[in-house]
From TrEMBL:
Lineage of the species this protein comes from: Eukaryota, Fungi, Dikarya, Ascomycota, Pezizomycotina
Enzyme Commission number, as recorded: 3.2.1.-
Record protein name field: Glucanase
Cleavable signal peptide: 1-19
Catalytic activity: Hydrolysis of (1->4)-beta-D-glucosidic linkages in cellulose and cellotetraose, releasing cellobiose from the non-reducing ends of the chains
Enzyme class: hydrolase
GO function terms (MF aspect): cellulose 1,4-beta-cellobiosidase activity
């Protein structure tokens, strides 16, 4: 994800946490979500995949009872005296996806509601795709010389919200085999990581992140611990109805899969570029690239008042799955018309409408940003991650760190909006305040559907 430590901004009002033991109060039943695997020779074949809720949202209670191990912003330190003890004493329970979390599936469509009110109130959510016919393993996507396609409806996502679909290099079993204290694994949504090295993940490497746990000053239901959880990340889609960006983020070569950081490795605060991962990434946001009419709800080329298709292609140097990744291309399909991604509207970027190392260098130079993407390994490093395999993540959330202004407004807010790269969308700099969107846009939602992946050119109608 882009610019800020976005995981710290995920807001949820349940007494939830990520656990390592398995509770027995609620049966864990994974909602089915049909996806398709495609080839140019054989067409597309249904895959009997399903989704699982991230463990950070789940009820965490004592193994032998109903006492919360974590409530609001605080651990119960009488139970969780240290990380390993907490993992032994606390259990992660099953989820009521629709009633409690506002998450439902129908055929190939996933709907994620922003605010769901039942006996408690839930805000936002994050799910992962499980492998076909498996309750215990995430689907691993290896997308070099492949394409990934999905349909999306963002018509009900206003300024300040982010419907994000992306890949993170998580362990396929959620860390179950690596850490003896993790008894829950992918079946209960464990093992999250991304390039922001988030500190709000409550269990990392099979241990509770209780050391130096500090309550958030902006979110009454969040906090951060001593450790962060890092890995490579490919943001296929971060968007609302007003703006969108796709962004590769990479980490140093030593970060393969999920990596627990501490201290300067996490790249916190003023040490943003000194950590193991590239937090800025190399983003392509059409509005930020100078084309303010390509995407949006007011007569734009991509009309966000209606559903459309997003195609992302991962091009290698030799057009094979073993070659180095060199380019990430974007296409759209709407109203049966294939629409190429917009070209940047600045002279030094005018030849680019995809992400390459050359584009990233030119973009960073124009905007005056640090090219940490290149420092950490560039687009080839992203390809190495896809060669090992990445997990599909789908979410909806608001941003307690920066009000999502980095996505849909002028950011930083004190910068000259006429400077290239500052304007990222048409939303006001006063928009996106979590208390406002949670109160006024509670009925917001996003729908992801018709997920397809496979040979380049096999997942969408090229002749439309």
């Amino acid at each position: 994800m882009y610019q800020t430590s976005l995981l710290a901004s995920l807001s949820f009002l349940l007494a939830t946490s990520q656990a390592q033991q398995v509770g027995t109060q609620t049966a864990e039943t994974h909602p089915k979500l049909t996806t398709q695997k495609c080839t140019t020779a054989g067409g597309c074949t249904d895959q009997s995949t399903s989704i699982v809720l991230d463990a950070n949202w789940r009820w965490l209670h004592t193994v032998d009872g109903y006492t919360n191990c974590y409530t609001g912003q605080e651990w119960d330190t009488s139970i969780c005296t240290d990380g390993k003890t907490c993992a032994e004493k606390c259990a992660l329970d099953g989820a009521d996806y629709e009633s409690t979390y506002g998450i439902s599936t129908s055929g190939n469509a996933l709907t994620m509601n922003f605010v769901t009110k039942s006996s408690q109130t839930n805000i936002g959510g994050r799910v992962y795709l499980l492998a076909a016919d498996s309750d215990d393993t995430y689907e691993l996507f290896k997308l070099k010389n492949q394409e990934f396609t999905f349909d999306v409806d963002v018509s009900n996502l206003p300024c300040g919200l982010n419907g994000a679909l992306y890949f993170s290099e998580m362990d396929s079993d959620g860390g179950l085999s690596k850490y003896t204290t993790n008894k829950a694994g992918a079946k209960y949504g464990t093992g999250y990581c991304d390039t922001q090295c988030p500190h709000d993940i409550k269990f990392i490497n099979g241990e509770a992140n209780v050391q130096n746990w500090t309550a958030s000053s902006t979110d009454k239901n969040a906090g951060t611990g001593h450790y962060g959880s890092c890995c490579n990340e490919m943001d296929i889609w971060e968007a609302n109805s007003q703006a969108t960006a796709f962004t590769p983020h990479v980490c140093e070569a030593k970060v393969e899969g999920q990596y627990r950081c501490e201290g300067t490795e996490c790249g916190d605060g003023d040490n943003r570029y000194g950590g193991v991962c590239d937090k800025d990434g190399c983003d392509f946001n059409s509005y930020r690239m100078g084309n303010e009419t390509f995407y949006g709800s007011n007569g734009s080329t991509i009309d966000t008042t209606k559903k459309f298709t997003v195609v992302t292609q991962f091009i290698t140097a030799d057009n094979t799955a073993t070659g180095a990744l060199t380019e990430i291309r974007r296409k759209y399909v709407q109203n049966d018309v294939v629409i190429e991604n917009s070209y940047a509207d600045y002279e030094t970027l005018s030849k680019f409408n995809s992400i390459t190392d050359d584009f990233c260098a030119a973009q960073k130079t124009l905007s005056g940003d640090t090219n940490d993407f290149k420092t950490k390994g560039g687009i080839a490093r992203m390809g190495e991650s896809f060669e090992r395999g990445m997990v599909l993540v789908m979410s909806v959330w608001d941003d307690h760190a920066a009000n999502a202004l980095w996505l849909d407004s002028s950011y930083p807010t004190d910068a000259d909006a006429s400077k290239p790269g500052v304007k990222r969308g048409p939303c006001s700099t006063s928009s996106g305040v979590p208390s406002d969107v949670e109160a006024n846009d509670a009925d917001s939602s996003v729908i992801y559907s018709n997920i397809r992946y496979g040979d380049i050119g096999s997942t969408f109608n090229k002749t439309a």
